[in-house]
Amino acid sequence: MKPFEYIAPRSLEETTALLARAGTDATILAGGTDLLVEMRRPNKMRKRVVVDISRVSELGGMITSDRSVVIRPLMTHARLQHSELLRIAAPLLASASAAIGSPQIRNRGTIGGNIMNAATCADTVPPLIALGATVTLRSAAGTREMPLSSLFLRPYQTIAAPDELLTEIRFPGLTADARSAFIKLGRRNALSISRLSVAAILRIGRDSRIAEARIVPGAAFPTWQRVTAAEALLLGERPSARLFAAAGACVSKEMILQTGRRWSTEYKEPVIAVLVRRALEQCAAPALPEDGK
Length: 293
Ligand SMILES: Cc1cc2nc3c(=O)[nH]c(=O)nc-3n(C[C@H](O)[C@H](O)[C@H](O)COP(=O)(O)OP(=O)(O)OC[C@H]3O[C@@H](n4cnc5c(N)ncnc54)[C@H](O)[C@@H]3O)c2cc1C
Known about the structure:
Blueprint: E1 5-7, H1 12-22, E2 26-29, H2 35-39, E3 49-52, E4 62-65, E5 68-71, H3 77-81, H4 84-89, H5 91-98, H6 103-108, H7 111-117, H8 125-130, E6 134-139, E7 142-147, E8 152-154, E9 157-158, E10 165-172, E11 178-185, E12 196-204, E13 210-218, H9 228-234, H10 241-259, H11 265-284
Helix pairs in contact: 9-10, 10-11
Flavin-adenine dinucleotide binds next to strand 2, helix 2, helix 6, helix 7 and strand 10.
């Protein structure tokens, strides 16, 4: 690891001032579970200053405001996993947090680091995009808010400037009639990053037809997006295994349209279709006919 200067500011104002001064020479450290791995790679880490934000109390915690859930970036996966608020307002995000790494990783790793690292396998991002999350970036010059889906340029790259800090993640909590699911598939059951994942939200109306559908796959596209073509297939229809299989096939087709056929397509093409079907079945479980058809 190359030598670097380590600074641990205590306030948001101090942090943004430091980042403004250091410019492209600085990198932000939260839990360090991604950054330290990166810094140990030979010839990779060239930043002169590491700004450890873990002591900045304004960047921790979670509140509800105007029927929105506001999560600050230092919230760890362990706290999100066990949050009573998320169990009601966004159970799919609690499930995704619970599926990350091991207890040690979940105790250190933060939601802010998961987002800003921008790996396509980041487990909290598909649920947040399905929830319609927005994020706030802050620098000494001011703040800007944007949909989370607009934050990402390509894998491992966001639009944040070197002096900008993620300070807030905000989304409307799910209504009581919405059902959600997060499913992840890795190479093994424990301590495994996602080969593919799916976040899904369904709202079924009083007429037993699907009134709202949101589907966001993870590790399937270069960046995350709702698959609106598959969502449109579901709207106004009654939940059934056949319908959900058709939505899965549609997501699979969209993935290949956007990424082309690659070495992994033979595996991903059928698997993403099955994961989407299972996630939708999980959402609709109480409303599915007994024979599942
Ligand atoms: C063994 C192991 C298993 C893992 N398993 C999983 C898994 O199953 N699923 C998964 O999604 N991830 C997994 N990860 C990756 C990692 O744990 C998560 O991405 C974690 O959430 C990163 O958070 P952190 O606080 O440790 O980030 P850090 O490592 O501190 O930072 C990550 C990046 O984000 C930037 N950053 C952090 N906070 C901010 C901020 N507020 N504003 C601007 N930039 C910021 C940093 O500069 C850095 O570039 C695993 C990692 C390890 C080592």
